[in-house]
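Running this now, will post back.
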Amino acid sequence: MQMHDKLLQYIQASYHFNSAEIELIKEYFEPVEYSKNTVIEEEGNVPRYLYYIISGYLRLFHFDENGNEVTTHINCPPGFFTSYFNFINQTKSDENVECITDCELLRITKENLNKLTEESPSMKDFSISVFHQSINYNENRSKELSTLNAEQRYLKLIKNYPGIIQNVPIQYIASFLGMKPESLSRIRRKLIN
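Update: finished.
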């Protein structure tokens, strides 16, 4: 299966695209592959691309005032990934986008995304829905961090994304869940017993 076919399946699940629009999507989304531990967008720069994940895991992270890495988002494929707010507004991001595993991605620049949404009404509607999903995700995440305890956050994550444990190092998962790796190890031991 071609990389573009996976993207087309994903977007055509909710929206109808004619053959001209499909050709535009294939033209504007560029297939790329990265090896694990590659930072593909660096903090201090305007994010160049919006990525669609064919396979692999990525994370958004920044450094706190003590120089510790803080993971703010881990994808669970498929879906789109970037520092959304900065990509949309074309402003400098304070976050890095890193491939946790080897990744197969499709990427599009903001300029080409604008062209695509101008030329395809369905893509415009689809893009708006993707950004709404991103906003909802971030609101839910903030709520969970403030209302669920550490164990509840972990259980919810592995229930919704069982593959994450096999693919993502424990320190990234702990940081993403707002806890220290030792705390997460304690929770996991307790649940195993």
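The beta strands are 30-34, 39-41, 49-55, 58-63, 69-74, 79-81, 96-99, 103-109. More later if anyone needs it.
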